[in-house]
Amino acid sequence: MSDAVRVGMPLVEFLELSAQQPFELINGERRPIVPTVYRHSKAIQFLLFRLRDYTQVYGGNVFSETTFILPSADKSRWVEGSRIPDVMLFLDNRIAEYEASDPEYLDIPLALIPDLVIEVVSPTDKLIEVAEKIDAYLADGVRLIWQVDTYTRKVIVFSPDAEQPHYLKTGDVLDGGDILPDFRLPLTELFAAVG
Fold it and tell me: Under a CB-based contact definition with an 8 Å cutoff, are residues 155 and 147 in contact?
């Protein structure tokens, strides 16, 4: 018999604790969500609208600041981890298929790994925690991650099949690669919109 400790908590407990103080569950550690600044919200809104325009043509669903959980492998109501990305996108009909598979989907966090996640760096973020969160997304199976820093005006692109992250700066164009074909965003537009 294994002495392994099960990481996480029951979904009911997760929902109760989240109602008291929103948090992410990363590597077994609860990390409270702290208030953001207006610049952060402007960047999220801009990216959300650009991706919503993209999904209108190519399909998919995009959300901002929505919780997704990592359910246990046995599909019980046990939460092994949770994330609240600034923006996340699901391709094709993944959301419709998810909704059809769980009659309680409206009253629980999404139990589905996004295809794209965007993290906008805030002045309240600890860079070591942002790096841990990026690593967690990659381990979760997120296919594309954009880390956006409006202060330094840089974007770092991560994907599980890339040996190194890809660094972009003002003047460069952010594209969706194989995950989001034909998506192109000049970073001058993003940073101009944020101010």
Answer: yes
CB-CB contact of 10 with 77 (8 Å): yes
Cα 140 from chain centre: 11
Does this model's pTM top 0.85? My answer is yes
Q: Which parts of the chain register pLDDT below 70?
A: 1-6, 75
b/e burial code for range 153-191 (CB count within 10 A of at least 16 → b)? bbbbbbbeeeeeeeebeeeeebebeeebeebebebeebb
Distance, CA of 95 to chain centre: 15
Dist CA 6 CA 4 (whole Å):
6
Is the dihedral angle over the CA atoms 19, 20, 21, 26 positive or is it negative?
negative
Contact status, residue 31 vs residue 21, Cβ threshold 8 Å: no
**Integer Cα distance of 133 and 19 in angstroms:** 22
The amino acid sitting at 190 is L
Tell which residue, 60, 70, 65, 63, has the closest CA to residue 91: 60
Query: What backbone phi and psi angles, to 5 degrees, belong to 31?
Result: -120, 110
What SS3 state is found at 154? strand
Q: How many CA atoms lie within 13 A of 95 on its CB side?
A: 17
